[in-house]
Amino acid sequence: MRIQHNKQSIDVKFILNIISLIGAVGWGWYEMESRITALEMKIEQQSKMQALHDEIAQIKNQQQFAELK
User: Fold this and answer.
1) What residue numbers bound the domain in which 9 lies?
2) How many domains does the chain have?
3) Which of 36, 41, 52, 59 has a CA-to-CA distance to 25 between 20 and 30 Å?
4) pLDDT tens digits in sequence order for the chain, 69 residues long
5) SS (H, E, C) the chain
6) Distance of CA 49 to the CA centre of its chain
């Protein structure tokens, strides 16, 4: 009877370890996804800023060209 109780204890520990492992993997995946999303947003923002910078430079060049005429 004692051997069976020990086996049940091992089974419960194994199940708890599996649940903990699944939770850790799930949390790691969630953290990775949130970091990737933040990085994608940052890249998109930098692209928009670069486009604005290019547009401003183009307007300045047009103004300088107009002044030369």
Assistant:
1) 1-69
2) 1
3) 41
4) 344 566 677 888 899 999 999 999 999 999 999 999 999 999 999 999 999 999 999 999 999 888 887
5) CHHHHHHHHHHHHHHHHHHHHHHHHHHHHHHHHHHHHHHHHHHHHHHHHHHHHHHHHHHHHHHHHHHHC
6) 21
